[in-house]
Amino acid sequence: MCNSILNAAEGNCLARLMRAHRYKSALMLWLVLALGLRCAFATDGQPLLDLGIVSWLDYQKRQLLSEVREVSIEAGKVKPTDTVVSIYEAVMFHNLDEQTHRLVFLPDIGNKMEQAYTSAVMRHDERWGAEFHDFGRFPYHCTLHPEERGEVSVIL
The whole model's pTM is what? Predict the structure, then answer.
């Protein structure tokens, strides 16, 4: 009798584990499909993918999955002013200033942008991210402080 009770308990536990695994598998499949669709829409010919304001946790997760370049804005200066990345690599712009900043990327002879692209407004200690989907040079400056300039070069 004890053996049958133990076998039933083990079977019940195993059934619960299998159901939990099935839910996790379905969730993972949904995430892969959602991210895949996002990537499909992101590669619609636009050279720049806006990652938006990125939380610290999202920044850490992105660093685990791929290389991330960080550009800081501090004391009225962009550091480094020239950033070199590979295609599909993310660049995070980190505002360490007390002032807000908003970057604008301009069409240039060295890129395929058809129109200017403006970032979200970055408050103190916020990060805004962009991923570059085309080769070229992407000059930018702060719309609020035009003397703050830089360039992202996308190479192989």
Answer: 0.66
Q: What is the pLDDT of residues 101-154, one digit of tens each?
A: 999 998 888 888 888 889 999 999 999 999 888 899 999 999 999 999 999 999
Residue 38 is encoded by which pair of tokens? 């996002």
Strand 82-86 and strand 90-95: the pairing is unpaired
CB-count exposure of residue 82 (10 Å: 0-12, 13-18, 19+)? exposed
Residues 6+ apart with CB under 8 A from 57: none
- Measured in whole angstroms, the distance separating CA 39 from the mean position of its chain's CA atoms is 11
User: What are the phi and psi torsion angles at 49 (to 5°)?
Assistant: -105, 120
Burial of 23 (0-12, 13-18, 19+ CB in 10 A): exposed
Q: With helix as H, strand as E and coil as C, how does the chain read?
A: CHHHHHHHHHHHHHHHHHHHHHHHHHHHHHHHHHHHHHHHHHCCCCCEEEEEEECHHHHHHHHHHCCEEEEEEECCEEECCEEEEECCCEEEEEECCCCCECEEECCCCCCCCCCCEECCCECCCCEEEEEECCCEEEEEEECCCCCCEEEEEEEC
